[in-house]
Design a protein that fits this description.
Elements (H helix, E strand, L loop, with lengths): L11 H7 L3 H8 L9 H17 L3 E3 L2 E3 L1 E5 L2 E7 L6 H17 L5 E6 L4 E5 L3 H19 L18 H5 L1
Parallel strand pairs: 4-5
Antiparallel strand pairs: 1-2, 3-4, 5-6
Helix pairs in contact: 1-2, 1-4, 4-5
Amino acid sequence: MVDDLPELRIQGTWVWYYAICRREVWLMTHAIQPDEDDPNLDYGRFLHERALTKDGEEVLLGVNRLDRVIEKNGDLVVIEIKKSSQAVDSARLQLAHYLRQLELRGVQASGELRFPEERRKEVVYLTDNLRDQLEIIYRGILAIIDQPVPPAPEWIKWCAHCAYRDFCWS
């Protein structure tokens, strides 16, 4: 039964963070909240709300929140809105995760990454390569969740603007 698949418990944001910082995946999945007053989180929420106000409402898919789902030329398109394209590979994997979640439920769709501040879009299709990457990521996320403590912090370029930076580096 498809509902029993462990990957259906995985949220798209976990996939995004797995590609950037595995410690953050552990923190998120163990309900350790980031600094909600972090200006980067505020700005991201602002962009997200502005885009949703213009384009419609989020769609719930299991444990996932899809920014937008539209019909384009008779096809279903999942829209993912990001602040910038700096982490485009992570964003692509997150969107592929949503496409995979739909596919597991018998629904075919393509995706579109939108970077409103850059006035840029990228079309994403769920390829065999992305499916293979997702299988590895799903196993990795489930292994991280089962760890009793978070992975040790590793300084990466994203740390300087991360809402967990004080938690990791104080």
